[in-house]
User: Fold these one by one.
Assistant:
Number 1:
Amino acid sequence: MCYGCGVAEDRDMADTISAAIRDAPEPPEPLDARTARREFAPRGAFLNTASYGLPPRGAHEAMLAAERDRAAGLLTTGMGDEAVRRARALFGRLVGLPPERIACGPQVSYFVGLVAASLPARATVLVADGDFTSLLFPFLARPGLVVRSVPLERIAGAVDGDVDLVAVSAVQSADGRVAAMDELIGAARAHGARVLLDATQAVGWLPVPADRVDLLVCGGYKWLMGPRGTCFLAGTAEALAELPAIGAGWYAGADVWDSIYGAPLRLAGDARRLDLSPAWQSWVGQVPALELLARVGVAAVHAHDLALANRFRAGLGLPPGDSAIVSVPVAEGTAELLAAHEVIAAVRAGRLRCAFHLSTSEQDVDRALELLSGRVTAGARRDDQPR
Ligand SMILES: Cc1ncc(COP(=O)(O)O)c(C=O)c1O
């Protein structure tokens, strides 16, 4: 591709945007969660969205089409731009924020790194024990910050006047525990601390208070069912303005295609100043997945995913929970046994982690339960104890 000579051409060629993106219904046509299951083609029972989400058929096809276009020399940068534009708008609709307050990049840790870089020396960051390292390492790697770690259940109570930022996952990757977000936001406000919420394990199935936190980061490849390589950072105008655009390249320019050569610095005036140049095929694949979520609606996805998770819990003799991720202690070799029967789950923090999303059916849950019979061991936690 010729960046220099193709500006006008690229704009013209935006006309050739793949049908999967261009022809998406606007506003979305409603779809019920059970019917949405038909959009997925797992080989067996897939209970592993907490590791990576399955693409709905349209998303998979759009990404493959983009890759075929690349092989044929027909990929256009206009196509990538349009995919990012639509993904940003769709994500905004999902969390209730305008696109001007959403940046697009590749990974959670990159955006968290910008937040870490923005903090003054000796700032105190409060985190939860055992949280995902893409949320922790950028703060730990920045010399001079004080990182205080407490159990998730005590994080709201641990906010005091010394804390500058609370950085926590809305839903824990390791075991699906849901943070007490209202309590935490209230405590942070009372003490003048900012909140950075990592919603990677939440947005897509759990309504999140995006308009009440200072910053929210969300990877696209799990519950948003995109390919690896898409991530969103949303925030208040004030919090975003304080982030240094130290990863800025041509894609962070006020007019992207007028920002490819030469000084002076001319960054976008909104959250786009934090964008990184997109992995084109990934963003093309992200759009139809976000469209499917918009069609089903977060409330319906939430009800669907929780119903499956609680069916699973009931089958194991556990009380109902509030998470689409269920983590249980199991006998050694259980994940392998499940995999041999095409039931896909993960082992995290020494426990079996099962995740339930639009790509999961009741039959999938029952199949997993059959195989798990007699293999769940007594756990240490209160919610491990069968009733
Ligand atoms: C809470 C959370 N944040 C972030 C990530 C991924 O981070 P990154 O995009 O830096 O790979 C994961 C992946 O499991 C996660 O569970």
Number 2:
Amino acid sequence: MASVPGQLLRVLLRLLGAFWSSLAPFCAWRRWGAPIPRRVPEAGVVARPVPVSVNYHFTRRCNYKCGFCFHTAKTSFVLPLAAAQRGLGLLKQAGMEKINFSGGEPFLHERGEFVGKLVEFCKQELKLPSVSIVSNGSMVTERWFKRYGEYLDILAVSCDSFNEEVNGLIGRGQGKKNHVKNLQKLRGWCRDYGVAFKINSVVNRFNVEEDMNVQIQALSPVRWKVFQCLLIEGENTGEDALREAEKFVISDEDFELFLQRHKDVSCLVPESNKKMRDSYLILDEYMRFLNCRNGRKEPSRSILDVGVENAVQFSGFDEKMFFKRGGKYVWSKADMALAW
Ligand code: SF4
């Protein structure tokens, strides 16, 4: 007959054995390094997108008059610097890693000082990995590069044609200023001041036949973004629009032919209408997200009033399409292997 202490010991050992068996799957799972599963939102709850990459169109004013412009000068409002900085801080807290300043023309307001201060703030204070600007390039000065160049990762300059007559037809230009010569000057400053140089082109009725291979290879941008001309109700089409862009629109087939002609340019990143429409997080001059899902820009409330998490739900942002179009790329100049 077994003693009482012996029985107790056996019971204890059995309990311990059961405890270890229950841990076994967990131990094996950790040992093989399986990823910890992501928290899935409860049924019926829509996951909010994280605003990893944001385009802040802080001004709508521009010195050019491109016929297909899809962010037109419907207001002349610009937030005070402190309010814009507060909004950028909120976005950083919500997960922003990349900010792109756009317009209108970002260098028009306070002759580039405003965008310069925002760029410096985002790099110095917020320590964002990537800070970029999209500009038509006509108002950028070397003085600006000297003062703010070190805080800027990427300067994207719009160029739709290397033929000045075509630029004139599109509305890209100002009197006698030569858009193409200016582009070459900007390329040089980007090299001199350590800023990655990017080119954005919109393929439309007037440049669709053009062969840009030689000029693009010579300018050697880190990225050449090629967009298909897009209609947005209320901006460049429809009754309350400031432009009538219908005559600029091209078919998907024409866009494909343009891409084929430039297939040897390795930095080319194409963006069809389908890819473009919902895959950008756009903030307007009041820091409202603009939802383009219905073919027009419908604003959320301002992040300054309701916070980022509330506003971003109304952004219409398609996170999957953002990743599919390669929205996340090497976007910090510190990570780019470039021969300046
Ligand atoms: S440069 Fe850009 S913002 Fe200005 S009119 Fe042309 S497309 Fe619009």
Number 3:
Amino acid sequence: MALSKLSSSSSRLTNLLKPVTTSFLLHRPISTDTTPLTIETSVPFISHQCDAPSRSVETTPKELLSFFRDMALMRRMEIAADSLYKAKLVRGFCHLYDGQEAVAVGMEAAITKKDCVITAYRDHCTFLGRGGTLLEIFSELMGRKDGCSNGKGGSMHFYKKDANFYGGHGIVGAQIPLGCGLAFAQKYSKDETVTFALYGDGAANQGQLFEALNISALWDLPAILVCENNHYGMGTAEWRAAKSPAYYKRGDYVPGLKVDGMDALAVKQVCKFAKEHALKNGPIILEMDTYRYHGHSMSDPGSTYRTRDEISGVRQERDPIERVRKLILAHDLATEKELKDIEKEVRKEVDDAIAKAKDIFHSPDAVICFSYSQESPMPEPSELFTNVYVKGYGVEAFGADRKEVRGVLP
Ligand SMILES: Cc1ncc(C[n+]2csc(CCOP(=O)(O)OP(=O)(O)O)c2C)c(N)n1
Ligand SMILES: [Mg+2]
């Protein structure tokens, strides 16, 4: 573990967190101060077939405070989703992202909403990073009409077309070739944008990754393949599944970089670098060294294939929110109390969104087909087949005997 190698003595840590250069003025309003600040990444980038970006990352007090707030919001949201699940208000599959927040936040700081993002089923925070709202998230989780997929996708299938977020995919690895297809469209339309296709260390062992890489490299597609290496695929540790766990090198002829995925500034730096690289030269792999605190999904307590010490060790040494908190305090950008107040604020924001998602009352003629709280309607049954097939192609539904047409889908 990268940060675990660092001395835990507070004086050493304070030295490490000191800026390379700094010229900010104290007593400026913390949330709007854009005075440049340069901070060294926690560990060096490791490169394969390309140069590594500089470890000195340009940032501002405003950006660091927004990293802190955004990651705290994501963390709180995931913890709330866990409680809702346990209260049986969320059903079906649900995979939580707490621990991995720096990847979503750092990536968004480097790109625009014109760039495309596509990921797997662990998608709540990626959606929030793309500008999705808490209300859309909790509504979707609870199968409500106001969800980002009209309550029909659930946890694994969040989408936000207006911010070029293409989901939310449950088939492991399937999003990788889809992402390369998006990059093909971007190259074809010459719009100077790129696609970030995120996948896990488990998915990295699939054949389709290499097929997609081959064609992307052959055609110089602006595809950035981000392997979020949280070190486990369900209950299987990476060392049991991968002959080479150096995922950044697995593209062979495709350049790659290994990054501390718990350091939001390092993630921002490498994503910026990768975007420039991909527009000029074609695909690149970014391996983000990260960690999930929760089990794989809600049915996995996450403690049978790894030790509690391992989990608490990562929390203590590498936690992405705590890292930014220490940076903010070391540079006197806010007080401990101000940071605690931000955490209180996000807690309230999450609670308010859940209350709203539960209590939304739609049109008076809304059909309540299956509801856990008295007022909140699920989508109407007639919605079952909408947004599934393209309209006008006459898709027919047969009975089990396949003889009789039972209905024509809209
Ligand atoms: C094609 C396919 N095979 C198997 C599964 C079952 N499955 C769901 S998640 C998962 C593990 C994937 O691990 P990883 O890619 O590391 O992602 P993480 O869950 O760690 O984010 C598996 C095997 C699936 N959904 N799709
Ligand atoms: Mg994994």
